[in-house]
Amino acid sequence: MRAPVREERGQSSVEAGLLLPSLLVVFAVLMEPVCVLYTRSVMSATASELCRILATRRGDITDEQLQAFARRRLAAVPEAAPFHGGGEEDWTIDTSGAEGDAEVTVTISGHVPLLPLFAFVSRALGVADEEGLALSVSTTEAVRPDWLEGGYDDWVSMWNG
Question: φ and ψ at 140, to 5 degrees?
Answer without folding.
Answer: -120, 130
